[in-house]
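Let us practice reading a record.
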Amino acid sequence: LGLGYENLSLSTRLGDTNVLALGPEDAPPAVFLPGGNALNPTCLKWFSPLAERHRIYAPDIVGQPGLSSQTRPSSKGDGHAFWMEDVLDGVGLHEPVPLVGISYGAGIAIRTMGLAPERVSRAALISPSGIATGPFLRILVEIGVPTLLYRLRPTEERLMRAAMPLYTEPGDPA
């Protein structure tokens, strides 16, 4: 990171969680949630200027790459939101705090706001994903196979078949 930081280890209901803490200890706190399958320091580096005026807590998301437990909560529930409550308690944040979430981390922030809105003062959601989940086989059949077919032999029709499940309204994706 090129910055001073602390490594904190917390116990949560989903196992041990590693948290990077940086910035002045007496500064207003903010919680940073990296993208899925991304290493926390890499994503955190993009937002490191925030550490000049905030105490940033950045947990390695459980079930994702990093130093936290590899226990992955069910995609059909609020497991990550309950985990976030444990993280907030573990670092001593009992008042509402701002969350900054990238991609999958933004999805966790949204779930946390739904489960415990009193714990979040505001949120910055960057390219949110993980908001809606679905059966893996269905995603594979509706998106994965058409995308693979398009990559093997690109045609306009195959492009449309691969892209349309990603849109909420019918129409031209171009």
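A brief commentary: The first strand starts at residue 6 and ends at 12.
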